Amino acid sequence: MQIEVRSDGKLEISGYVNAIDRYSKELYGTKGKFIEKVAPTVFQRALEKASNIDMLLNHDVRRKLASTSDNTLELREDNIGLHAKAVISDHEVIEEARCGNLKGWSFGFRALSDSWQEEGSVAKRTLEEIDLMEVSLLTIEPAYIATSVQVRSEDMEQRCIRDKPDVKENAEEIENQRSLVATKVWLLKNAILG
User: Fold this and answer.
1) Residue 149: pLDDT band by 50, 70, 90 thresholds?
2) How many other CB atoms sit within 10 Å of the CB of residue 111?
3) 21's torsion region: left (phi>0), alpha (psi -120 to 50) or beta?
4) Phi and psi torsions of 98, nearest 5°
5) Residue 112 needs a FRET pair 20 to 30 A away by CA distance; which of 168, 174, 180, 190 works?
6) Residues 6+ apart with CB under 8 A from 51
7) In 3-state terms, the chain is what percent helix, strand and coil (to 5)?
8) Distance between CA atoms of residues 55 and 74, nearest Å
């Protein structure tokens, strides 16, 4: 994913949310350990039937960054995978980009049709039909290896010293919030959406 800090202060983001026909990292679900991939044209069919798809931060529905309905998010599938292009004005996300803390993409979905191959201790799942609920920009590690983030700006170097926060933060509170987000992501992918 490429991110450019524009002269108006907004972020312009483009890149691949997920590659088709490439397996994820190991995931855990009701069937135990598995890896999964998305079959070709699955994203395109999901996009054709969706009235709106939001871009969120870390799958948090309270952190909407862009959406297809207000034309701040464009999504399409090509021969590589699900491509996204968005304009984001969220100040926290802009700061995360400047500090190099954006890790990649993810997507929330409901599986309508899938197939499984049982080979050894890790099953292989292929998503064949989904409802695409949202795409997310992540500050945590993505489940698919093929997602990455690059930051580009003519006047920006890759060093970051955060300004003093308005509210005093402590390490334990930050770690608790990260754990909560990781738990929510796992629940969304495996219990509700998977």
Assistant:
1) very low
2) 14
3) left
4) -60, -35
5) 180
6) 69
7) 20, 40, 40
8) 10
Instruction: Please give the Cα distance from 79 to 188 (Å, whole number).
Output: 27
Spatial contact of 50 and 75, defined as CB atoms under 8 Å apart: no
Going by C-alpha positions, the residue among 24, 88, 10 that lies closest to residue 56 is 88
What pLDDT is recorded for position 5? 80
Strands 32-38 and 123-138: parallel
DSSP letter at 39 equals -
- C-alpha 99/C-alpha 118 separation (Å) is 42
Q: Is the sign of the CA dihedral 184, 66, 98, 20 positive or negative?
A: positive
The whole-number pLDDT of residue 78 equals 95
In order of 3, 7, 8, 95, the CA distances from 154 in angstroms are: 12, 10, 14, 16
Residues in contact with 69: Cβ distance below 8 Å, sequence separation at least 6, in sequence order: 51, 52
Pairing mode of beta strands 27-29, 32-38: antiparallel
What are the φ and ψ backbone dihedral angles of 88, each rounded to 5 degrees? Answer: -120, 135
Q: At which residue do the structure tokens 């590690």 appear?
A: 141
Residue 51 tokens read as 């009235």
The radius of gyration of the chain from alpha carbons, rounded to an integer in Å, stands at 17
pLDDT at 178: 56
